[in-house]
Amino acid sequence: MKCPFCGSEDTRVSDKRETEDSSITRRRRKCLSCKKRFTTYEEVEKIELSVVKKDSTRQTFDKQKILSGLIKACEKRPISREMIEATVNEIEKEILNMDAKEVPSKVIGELVMDKLKNLDKVAYIRFASVYKDFADVEDFKKELDALIAKRAK
Ligand SMILES: [Zn+2]
Predict the structure, then answer these.
(1) Are both 55 and 85 inside the same structural domain?
(2) Residue range(s) defining the domain that contains residue 30
(3) pLDDT at position 38, please?
(4) Contact 73, 116 (CB under 8 A)
(5) How far apart are the CA of 30 and the centre of ligand 1, in A?
(6) What tens digit of pLDDT does each residue of 61-109 get?
(7) Is residue 4 domain-resident?
(8) For residues 91 and 66, what is the distance between their CA atoms, to the nearest angstrom?
(9) Which residues fall inside 5 Å of ion ligand 1, going by CB?
């Protein structure tokens, strides 16, 4: 960081403070050459991720939506809020790691189902039945049978 007074690059952070908006960090710096002090603001680059829906419309990625979907699916199941939140964080991380500007809602849905499958079978079926929009009961039954067959093994 260059000193705005003398141009020296020999500066040191003397104080760091988060502003009210925690995505902005305010730093007091001191120039080691001219001893003057100045302030810098660093802003975290905001990630604008769009979710492409089935009908090709786009929505801003909203972690809260995944959370409420999971809470609904896990209702009355032996899954703590902490577990749900940890799962949502995992999902968010995986989505952000794709490093894409747009992610199809289908990809997110599959990701959620993948996690739920390991977390709780009932929650998984609940989520899948809403999300997958099973064309007919036969589809749903197949999914159930596959799960039951797995459990029987
Ligand atoms: Zn200076």
Answers:
(1) yes
(2) 11-43
(3) 92
(4) yes
(5) 8
(6) 988 989 999 999 999 999 999 999 999 999 998 998 888 889 998 899 8
(7) no
(8) 9
(9) 3, 5-6, 8, 31, 33-34
